[in-house]
Amino acid sequence: MSFQITDLLPAKGAGLAPMAGVTDAAMRLLCHEQGAAWAVSEMLSAKGWVFSGGRNRAANDLLARLPGEGVVGLQLFGSEPEYIAEAGRQLSDRGFQFFDLNFGCPAPKITGNGEGSAMMLHPEKIGAVVRALADATPLPVTAKIRSGWDADHINAVEVAQICADNGAVAVAVHARTRMQQYSGEADWQVIARVKRAVQVPVFGNGDVRGGADALRMLEETGCDGLIVGRAAQGNPWLFREIAAALRGEAAPPPTPEERVDMAMRHFELEKRLYGEKLAVLQMRKHIAWYVHGMRGASRFRETVNALESGEAVLDALRKFAEEQEE
């Protein structure tokens, strides 16, 4: 096995957390270029993949890679070990370096099926799913969990131990419960307790918005590394900042020109992946993130959301950049 999860340690920076509808190949490439040590794909339904016979276009789009990407894990979700195992067997040769299992997604359409973070209520099922995938693939298997289901069921330590005992080579902990979704503060002490309890590497997740946060999480929790999600939306430079902080240095924030240029490049990558029509739709949220806080951003978002052609989007971005200079 050429890739070891121990390669992904803090000295190399932070990883990009999986986010549905966000961490496609374009987003991953841009974050890798700015210093992300690794990334995880959008989540793929193991059962959906097996039932479709690999013919689902959306699923195949999710599996796309771009030249220049670094280490990427393919995230699977599901509650039935047989489908997880079969998907793992079929997808082990698709160019990803490891598999990640999703036990953290809080979306009602996922938890309503007993998947994602709903699995935190059934640790024995988590163990069966991890073991099934670890036995089915030659690739390393990691798991992403939450603190628990709610404040009365904080069981990340138990679940992490079960994951490690059943073949997971690392565990990422989002230090919020499912009921918190993405609100409130992440309880980093949950990460610290998991780190003390298991022998495999533990990656912390939650409320890391810059280099100072990254250093504080590592110090307070003792975790082996960290992953960032929402803070990287429209801000791939975050990985540059974290990598610099880990070296004891400071990285300059992106200029307005850099932010607009990155949005334009992101659009070109999306177009390469999905074609112009879908890229225009995909980029609406990304552009909103890139220009957040800039002068006239609210009006500009409304303009972009009404555009239907790629050239119109690029023209609007060029004009917006000129307005920032003025």
Characteristics:
alpha/beta, 326 residues, 47% helix, 8 strands, eight-stranded parallel barrel, globular
Radius of gyration, in Å, reads 19 Å
- Measured by DSSP, the beta-strand proportion falls in 5-15%
Shape summary: globular
Query: Number of helix segments?
Result: 14
Give the rounded overall mean pLDDT.
94
Q: For the report, how would you describe the main beta sheet?
A: 8 strands, parallel, barrel
Helix content: 40-55%
Widest sheet, order of strands: 1-2-3-4-5-6-7-8
Distance between the termini: 54 Å
Number of strands: 8
User: Which regions have little confidence, pLDDT < 50, spanning 5+ residues?
Assistant: none
Order of helices and strands: EHEHHEHEHHEHEHEHEHHHHH
Oligomer: single chain
Descriptive account of the structure:
With 326 residues, the chain is of the alpha/beta class. The chain is 47% helix and 14% strand. It is built from 14 helices and eight strands.
List the helices and strands and how they pair.
Layout: E1 15-16, H1 25-33, E2 38-45, H2 46-52, H3 57-62, E3 72-77, H4 81-91, E4 98-103, H5 108-111, H6 123-136, E5 141-148, H7 156-165, E6 170-177, H8 188-197, E7 202-205, H9 211-221, E8 225-228, H10 237-246, H11 256-274, H12 276-291, H13 297-305, H14 310-325
Parallel strand pairs: 1-2, 1-8, 2-3, 3-4, 4-5, 5-6, 6-7, 7-8
Helix pairs in contact: 1-11, 2-4, 4-6, 6-7, 7-8, 9-10, 11-12, 11-14, 12-13
